[in-house]
Amino acid sequence: MTTPSQTVGPFFGYALPYAQGGELVPEDHPGAITVTGRVLDGEGEPVPDALLELWLGETGTRGALDRRGPGVSGFGRCPTAPDGSYRFRTARPATPYLALLVFARGLLKPVATRIYLEDAPDPLLDSLEPALRATLIARAETADAYVFDVRLQGEEETAFLEF
């Protein structure tokens, strides 16, 4: 007998978010970038209780949860603030994108997407129509700061991946 799926969240704040979860690299890491944004629902309203996981293709010299030393962690987890905002500090990826999982109320399972730091040739991006493609590209504010909003539904809904 199979147990039916249930929506995820709201999240009990013990052990899912953890101290410095959005900091994949130390403050002084050379070439570090910051990715910020907001998670928005179908009406464009902030989702204050989502949980995001950011994954790098390579993990460097440290374990995923180890935030000590000069290396790069390959994994970060960050809850959204009351205004739906989030923030990650990470190394620039070796691939053209960062992988992002979004857990939010109303979802049966987390949704996966990618954060592209620029509009460059890529098999996934090349396969998408321009409007959908645009939902995966972060807006550069400076050379090391990017903004990427996640829209769960509605106009300009973020492209989510199926595996």
TrEMBL record:
Gene Ontology MF: a single term: protocatechuate 3,4-dioxygenase activity
Pfam family for this entry, one: Dioxygenase_C
Ranges where the Intradiol ring-cleavage dioxygenases domain occurs: 10-97
Keyword Iron: no
UniProt keyword annotations, A-Z: Dioxygenase, Oxidoreductase
PANTHER family assigned: DIOXYGENASE, PUTATIVE (AFU_ORTHOLOGUE AFUA_2G02910)-RELATED, PROTOCATECHUATE 3,4-DIOXYGENASE ALPHA CHAIN
Family (UniProt): Belongs to the intradiol ring-cleavage dioxygenase family.
Protein name: Protocatechuate 3,4-dioxygenase subunit alpha
Organism: Planotetraspora kaengkrachanensis
